[in-house]
Amino acid sequence: MISLFRDSRYFPRVILSLVVLFFLWWLANRAWYLVESRMVKIEWLEEGQISRTITTSGWLIKEEQLLSSPGRGQLRLLVGDGQRVRAGAAVAEVLLVNSGTGEEKVVVYAPRGGVFCNHIDGMERVLRPGNALEMEAVEKLGAKSSSPATGDRVEKGQPVGKLVDNLSGMWYWCRIPWEPAIPAKWTTGQSVVALWQGQQIRMRLEKITGEEMLFLLPAYPGVLVHQRHVQLELVAGEVAGFMVPPRAVVERGGQPGIYVISRRRATWMPVQVLGETSGRVVISGQGLSTRIRYVTNPFWVREGDRLE
Length: 308
Prior knowledge:
The structure is a single chain. The protein is 13% helix and 43% strand. The chain has 308 residues and is mainly β. Among the domains are: 1-39; 64-167, CATH 2.40.50.100. Strand 12 (191-196) and strand 13 (199-209) form a beta hairpin. This is RND related barrel-sandwich hybrid domain-containing protein. It comes from Desulfofundulus salinus.
């Protein structure tokens, strides 16, 4: 290299190469800065809170009655699935076969008022209010659904539908594995809020047996009449902190953190994730306040980057 400088013929080329390299370096840094300034989004930290929930899986117990075919023949439903009927209303008819007197139709009547459902899961005689059951045994048994429809061949005594009393409430029976989020002070008679597909349902705790709990739902979304095994989220309290989008949290060595703006530089700061809801995460950490700005999309950010 020294010899190149001594040789005047190569000196301009060396200077030109250095100038080109410096220009490329400057251009790359300028391009990265422009990408950061356009792509990086910065916001102020905002306080907020979300509900701390426990996801449970369990069974719905209802006041329901099976409606059986009075004979062997072809089924014709007279009411639709989910339709409420009065006591004594005709819900189905069966065209009997081999009656010996030609075609004969027999009618299936509703013994009481309720919601007619044509899907049978085999749990109607098992999951009944007041039955002493074991969750493990019910889970092994499982639900076996069938939906008799118009035109189907049915046997004598075969269920063609059922009536659900939607005015008497419903019970939710579930197993809740112990975790710190469950208040130890939960007692029978206590009101508990649950979430089903984003809808709030108020329940009353009726019974506690170890990890198993039985809740009464005095009112509920009508579609639950057709459900048996469901998942409900039990609200076990509120979590307060700072709300950020999930993508703002970056892990380093298993420790979550966010990039904050300190002296116009991106600085990674460790945080604790307290909870998560749809599209937002609640965090806490030493030094966090509403006077701090943070990077909402840190994909484009490196430690120490200059950000305005």
